[in-house]
Amino acid sequence: MGPWRCLLLLPLLAPALRAQQQQFMEYVERRLTLLEERISQWHDQSSRYSTELRDFKNQVLGMLEAAEKEREAMRAEAEGAAVRVDRLEREVDYLETQNPAPPCVEVDETLMDKQVATAKQRKNEKYTKLTDCSDTIASVRAMKILKRFGGASGLWTKDAAGNSEKIYVFDGTANDTVYVFPRMREFTLFSATRKAARIKLPYPWVGTGHLVYDGHLYYIRQQGLSFQVIKFNLANKTVVDSSVFPAEEQIPVFGLSPSTYIEVSADEEGLWAVYATKEDEKNMCLAKLDPASLDIEQMWDTPCPRENAEGAFVVCGALHVVYNTRPPSRARVQCVFDVSGTLAPEDASLVYFPKRYGSHASLKYSPRERQLYAWDDGYQIIYRMEMKKKLEV
């Protein structure tokens, strides 16, 4: 088509082009109007959201301030309660000190059984001390909770006479397997018994009154109505000696530990046995043992009651009996019986133990370390003691 024909068509196409341009412009205007409306709507929503966020922030800040005030009030109340509890404990300690249990002054000099005739003849003889030890407990200085091992009752100890660092653990009041840890570190760090050696005894033990002394285990075996002291060599795992304890109709020595009939203890003077019989159901008896032959060297009726007693140990020839209450409370050394007569029971200090979990199942005195190894509701505890001379009490 020639140029002249295109020129003839332009007047015909111009109205159509203007109409399309007008439609396009109207479309663009509508889209812009819609976009402006959406922008306005977004602006309104954004402004509303900002207002709501600001209000929520102010509300949260108010709640945080109120919570902080409540926390400070609770902290002040807790501190006040702690102060009142400490004051109450001091008042209770003071009252217990000012109003202790009746002094242990009653002594029943009943005749002993024929089996202890020899000991009875020497009963009133003056005790000949083997050492110059004249200390007694002034206070329990501190306690250290090692771990929790085994059941509620048991005992753990070192050799009371040697320098061995081995730890011996007796779990329960009726068993025949002793766990032996090489050092305190292994016993503290490892809870599993696979880290311990095991010693199976030829006879099961009864109670928690056993003792490791000079490489030997002295433990209590019940045979019918009588009780035997078994001397067991820990090195070659053999029974060295055994002896029927020369007392008839024995009863539990501690009112709060019904499974213990004989408590074997060691101090600077040697071996001792604490026990009780029906001849004098109220008080305990004390015997001096020969570690080599298990013979009874001398026996005493003590003025220390069995009732509410949970344990006992001997320090420098003086029996210290620990008392508690049936709902466990603070334990205390409330009766001291000195075989040499240096310290009268009524002159002994009333010694309290720190707070614990329950009631002592056993207390083992270490003469070398001057501390107690205690078993308290499955927890193994070390008590460090402050000592002083008996004449200073």
Automatic annotation (TrEMBL):
User: What Pfam family is a match, any one?
Assistant: OLF
Task: Please name the GO terms of the biological process aspect recorded for this protein, alphabetically.
Answer: signal transduction
Cellular localization per UniProt: Secreted
Q: Which UniProt keywords apply?
A: Coiled coil, Developmental protein, Disulfide bond, Glycoprotein, Secreted, Signal
Q: Which residues form a coiled coil?
A: 57-98
The record's annotation in InterPro entries points to:
Olfac-like_dom (IPR003112), Olfactomedin-like_domain (IPR050605)
Q: Which SMART domains match?
A: OLF (SM00284)
Q: Does the keyword Cell cycle apply?
A: no
Residue intervals of the Olfactomedin-like domain: 132-389
Signal peptide: which range, if any? 1-19
Chief location category: secreted
One Gene Ontology term, aspect cellular component: extracellular space
Task: Describe the family membership recorded for this protein in Swiss-Prot or TrEMBL.
Answer: Belongs to the OLFML3 family.
Which protein, by its recorded name, is this? Answer: OLFL3 protein
The major lineage groups are:
Eukaryota, Metazoa, Chordata, Craniata, Vertebrata
List the gene name.
Olfml3
